[in-house]
Amino acid sequence: MTNPIKSALCASFLALTLASPNIAASPAFAVETNAMIDVTQTSFHSEIIDGIRIAYREAGDPAKPTILLLHGFPTSSHMFRNLIPELAANYHVIAPDYPGFGASDMPLAEEFDYSFAKVAEMMITLLDRKDVNNYAVYLMDYGAPVGFRMFAQHPERVSGFIIQNGNAYEEGLREFWDPIKAYWAEPSTENGDALRGFLGMEATKWQFTHGTQNPDAISPDNFWHVQYLLDRPGNQEVQLAMFLDYGTNVAEYPKWQALFREYQPPTLLMWGKNDHIFPADGAHPYKRDLNNIEFHLLDTGHFALEEFGINIAAGMIEFLDQNTTP
Question: What is the DSSP secondary-structure string of 195-263?
């Protein structure tokens, strides 16, 4: 017996097909497009250096001048996520993660030399692998001693500094640093344990929000992803190793200052003046040694890009356009 429902459906489909012959007759086809890849789009890569996978973000045309972005504590290249596309339209941008940070490998503290000298050496190797022999460098927090150590090894490679809350003068190491200085003087378990409070969620959130004009506008994505990385088993020991080694940078300050005076790299300083970690006391001394310096204090805190990203990007582009040879 014929199924009346099935017959009705078949009749309806046949009527629709006859009424719209192009639907049935048109073959499937692919549309070819000549749209160009957006050079400002960030891509994610890694290099194995000394057996450690170093992750980095990259954007822009490698044939154009390179800008190296060096992150601070406790973040990663993630802090540059919005800045990179702004720069990449006219520049080649590289933003690495240090060992133990971001998407890079995190060997245990007892199995790796967590030192600023080692990180600087690895960053030089990364640039060598990328065939980058000339670059401007954005220095922030930990990025300052990493970048200045790179500068000390190859000053002729650095076309300019963009300095944002990164220290090279003892005037910038105020009371916040007292418990860390105690650890440098006596690296005991007790003095190390006293610093673990810097590695909890409240301290992480404080670093991003303290000194800002509008703390509610700071994306909590910053705290969540940073704290996830800090809470990995073994990472606190990594951070304590870096806290301890930071003291070796202070001994290098006079050398870096002498190199500033000798090579006079063009410098754009854009500093969050409300930063309790690196206060503006550490910003002003750069004017003693650098003759070609553009100096700005911004009404924000430690991670100035979170509130003044648009201003910093615009200032950087103008500065780079004036001081970078295509």
Answer: TGGGGSHHHHHHHHHTT-S-GGGS-THHHHHHHHHHTSTTHHHHHHHHHHHHHHHHHHHHHHHHHHHHH
